[in-house]
Amino acid sequence: QKAGQLFSGLLAMNVVFLGSAFISSMIFNHVAITLADLWILLSILKVLCLCWIIYYLLGTSRQPHAVLYRDSHAGPIWIRGSVLLFGSFSILLNVFQIGYSAILIQCKSRVEIVFPSIEIVFIFTQAFFLWHHSKDCIQVQHNFTRCGLMLTIATNLLLWLLAVTNDTIHMEIESQLREVEQRFEGKAPFSHPCNETASCTCPNTTICKVFQKGYILLYPFNTEYCLVCCSVLYVMWKNVGRRISHHHAPHIKPQFKLQGVVFGPLLGTIAVIIGICVFMMYQIQATGSAPNHQVFVMYYSYYIVLLPLMSVGAVIGTIIHALEKKELDTLKNPTRSLDVILLMGAALGQIAMSYFSIVAIVATDPRDLLNSLILSHSVLLIFQNITQNVFIIDGLHRQPFAAATEARHTGHTGEQVVASELPGEEETTTSSNQEHTQMSPGKEEEMKEEQNHEAYDQRRVNMLELGQEIRKVSLSYIQSYSHLSWKRRVLREISSFLVLCNIILWVMPTFGAHPVFENGLEKSFYGYSTWFAIVNFGLPLGVFYRMHSVGGLLEVYITA
Q: Does the keyword Magnesium apply (predicted)?
């Protein structure tokens, strides 16, 4: 097993290094390595991954004793739903890219149509594979399956890296806007790095504008899809050859219920509504030729109010986890280990960008209003990421609440009481029947009626006594439960509030609110190229962190 993991890991490492070398060469030397060359390499990798996935679906998984165990923790419904959602948007993104390239076919390479077509097939097949087989603990062809999984992980990582570094259509749009502004101002177009793309302009037609805007709107979902697929595939790789014993399987599967939760969803809904309003106002004003200074103040003020509330909630939840004294879940769980790694790793994107912003502001003019807001936002964002990670990781390592087990035990005891009392009645009635069978026929009917009436009264008394006993047991259970109920309620309120807050903080940067690049402060301090690379590294990780935090917080909510 160790040798197979080592060999497959080395395979993935070499593929990632090869692809990274191609991407770096494309960035720093456009002549030697072009984007078309990189697309050909990625197309070859995707075809190899497709061949392995089809072989797994039709061959490996259908062998006898291939899937004896399934990991109940792997591939929860929201992760698989994210794969389908982001996969659907990624397919639509590639459709828009094909349409955009087909309209500009006179200045576009045919590879720009073939590459998205292959990617559509790859995304659809991979999404189908992960939806149906993400829980598999395959027991045959271990080494071949590990290599196939690692090759697919490496391909998704390279697709993510390409999506982060390649921004061709955005550069084309920017060059067109610069040309329009120069013509409007009566200036001659000057030479800039995007001149080679400026000649390939989108005609003034509705369909071309739709393809262009749709591509820009759906662009972040492709990066999200690649990262989510990598996480699911890694769990499958860890589960190859794994044998799950019976005590690993959960006897009671907790379900998502909104019982007794009021303030968390209410405050979270208010935060979402206000965030949508701020986002819409930001999009309307910041996308103009001269962004208004007040829109940045409004945007950062919203974050400065929301982030401390989220941090305080996470700190309170962590304290309650310490007071609960629930047992820690020490069983081997690859999904939980990956969740912890992804939370810590994805948070580095926002934390790194925040530290770069802090240095830039302190070195320039921290007393300015906007600079003070950006500085406060950066510090609060670092603190919020740390406190939320501690709260989620602590909650993921706690045992689920055992109320269902106690209730089941109480129900069994009640059934045993009923079973122990009712046979006694039957014995007394049968013995009385035997005594009265020797009487005369005329008196037998009267005695049977009296006997039935007495038996009915006796059963009624016994049932009333049984009900009183069950009521006493229930009251004693409620009294013992009340000591923990407030802790559970607070944990669920905090988790639901943080879920909604992370959703709105995921929506805003995903659909185009990027003040870290548009306010101009860090860009003027570090330079366009350096800050563009920092934002392209940190922003996708920050978006992925918010989405992954929602899944972790839902787990904490369910197990509370």
A: no
